[in-house]
Amino acid sequence: EVKLQQSGDELVRPGASVKISCKASGYTFTSYSMHWVKQRPGQGLEWIGAIIPIIDTTEYNQKFKGKATLTADKSSNTANMELSRLTSEDSAVYYCAREKKAGPLDYWGQGVMVTVSS
Amino acid sequence: DIQMTQSPSFLSASVGDRVTINCKASQNINKYLDWYQQKLGEAPKLLIYNTNSLHTAIPSRFSGSGSGTDFTLTISSLQPEDVATYFCFQHNSGNTFGAGTKLELK
């Protein structure tokens, strides 16, 4: 069974950074890209970027360049996203999602709520 | 960047109704358009990929159609469990979500 288990909710101070993780199981981690998606409270979905774990190649939405950094740890089958210089605009739920061959996102993590507050 | 215009933003329908949701791309995206369902408090779930392919275990009342720039999600007979927000997503060039359609029961 494919499963994406994300780390716990985070409360962080403005200006700080946070790293959230997405542990994959039930499939060959390096064979599929992993995407990240942002959802602000009551809002729609925003595509942040994606990583191809086998070659550590990343692609970012221009809006999130410099904000998000995607990495993949092949030894632990875990994808990570670090968000830097946090502001209230970064308060949101962040999802990881596996890319099925040819593009669609077929499995999603449960989401991590990041709250930026002093 | 490709923009996705989804309509309507809000939809109210009765059980058994045929429901259609539309998505228009700002340029040709070939067949690379997916539909996701998100229930309150849950992660999105893939329903339809590449315009008209039904994802695993999705009921056959859901279907997708279109090509190029205009796409449609159809629910042939609305069920109570279909209350959710629906998003389109293009992955032909970059990746872009539509703004969503909130579907409620009348």
Descriptive report:
The complex is a heterodimer of chains A (118) and B (106). The model of chain A has no long low-confidence stretch (mean pLDDT 96). Chain A is mostly beta strands and 118 residues long. Chain A is built from no helices and eleven strands. Chain A is globular. Chain B is mostly beta strands. Chain B contains no helices and eleven strands. Chain B has strands at residues 4-7, 10-13, 19-25, 33-38, 45-49, 53-54, 62-67, 70-75, 84-90, 96-97, 101-105. In chain B, the strands form two sheets. In chain B, strands 2, 4, 5, 6, 9, 10 and 11 form a seven-stranded mixed β-sheet that branches. Chain B has a four-stranded antiparallel β-sheet with strand order 1-3-8-7, with no helix packed on it. In chain B, a hairpin with a 6-residue loop joins strand 4 and strand 5. The model of chain B has no long low-confidence stretch (mean pLDDT 97). Classes of the chains: A mainly beta (118), B mainly beta (106). The interface between A and B is medium-sized, with 21 and 22 residues.
Give the secondary structure arrangement, pairings included:
The complex is a heterodimer of chains A (118) and B (106).
Chain A: E1 3-6, E2 10-12, E3 18-25, E4 34-39, E5 45-52, E6 57-60, E7 68-73, E8 78-83, E9 92-99, E10 105-108, E11 112-116
Parallel strand pairs in A: 2-11
Antiparallel strand pairs in A: 1-3, 3-8, 4-5, 4-9, 5-6, 7-8, 9-10, 9-11
Chain B: E1 4-7, E2 10-13, E3 19-25, E4 33-38, E5 45-49, E6 53-54, E7 62-67, E8 70-75, E9 84-90, E10 96-97, E11 101-105
Parallel strand pairs in B: 2-11
Antiparallel strand pairs in B: 1-3, 3-8, 4-5, 4-9, 5-6, 7-8, 9-10, 9-11
